[in-house]
Design a protein that fits this description.
Blueprint lengths: L1 H19 L6 H23 L4 H18 L1 H15 L5 H16 L2 H13 L3 H21 L7 H17 L1 H4 L2 H22 L13 H14 L3
Helix pairs in contact: 1-7, 1-8, 2-7, 2-10, 3-11, 4-5, 5-7, 6-7, 6-8, 6-10, 10-11
Length: 230
């Protein structure tokens, strides 16, 4: 769990630094940097998405989106962020929600969070999570500089998410050691990273939280795809 703790700490420290230097970042600079960050994120997501089986990705995304929309995950996360905003009396409720949701999805969804947690659980290797903690530290400086304290609270779902993956990997070691399956999970997660990037650049308003269950459908779709005579 050391890697998970390091990742959460990176988010908290990055957010604090971002809020501290917020006054030194004008709106024009913050907007330009966020768009550049979104573009880099898009490339990262694209490279990961291309590694998966298109059939598995499509089936998983369709099933996951149906489930996520039915469960209204995005709505629940918005209501959670609203409660946190009121609890800590944050100024600018919509800004708090935007920061919390954007940062949570950014740091939780993607190849590094999944692979890093699986490596930590399966092999005790925290290298990927340590690397991710540095990247999230830099990212949260910019996010918190533009969106405020809501970004800091993304450390909580990040800790729960990666911690759960580490524990799950330890329990299901024989199943999750399948490298091909991990590749498919990474592909679906990377597609969500692309959606986050498009939102950051202001090109779309995709409810990425409603896509999250797609990751859970990957093992099933991977097994089904293996039965097809392709």
């Amino acid at each position: 769990m050391l890697g998970v703790l390091a990742n959460a700490a990176g988010i908290v420290l990055g957010s604090l630094v971002g809020m501290f230097v917020k006054k030194g970042i004008n709106d024009r600079l913050a907007d330009a940097v966020m768009k550049a960050l979104g573009l880099c994120t898009l490339i990262i997501g694209l490279s990961g998405a291309l590694s998966g089986n298109p059939l598995v990705m499509i089936l998983s995304m369709v099933a996951g989106t149906i489930a996520g929309t039915a469960l209204d995950i995005d709505g629940h996360m918005n209501r959670l962020s609203d409660r946190l905003s009121k609890r800590f009396k944050a100024e600018g409720n919509s800004s708090f929600s935007q920061g919390f949701l954007t940062a949570t999805l950014f740091v939780c969804v993607g190849a590094m969070a999944i692979v890093g947690s699986l490596n930590a659980g399966l092999k005790g290797d925290n290298q990927v999570l340590f690397t991710k903690s540095i990247l999230d530290f830099v990212t949260c400086i910019m996010l918190a500089g533009g969106m405020g304290i809501g970004v800091l609270f993304s450390a909580v779902p990040l800790f729960l998410y990666e911690g759960s993956l580490v524990m799950l990997a330890r329990l299901l070691q024989s199943v999750l050691s399948n490298q091909a399956l991990i590749t498919e999970i990474n592909g679906v997660g990377s597609l969500m990273i692309m959606a986050i990037a498009l939102n950051i650049m202001g090109l779309t308003r995709i409810k990425v939280a409603d896509l999250l269950p797609a990751v859970l459908f990957v093992p099933l779709m991977y097994a089904l795809a293996g039965l097809l005579p392709l």
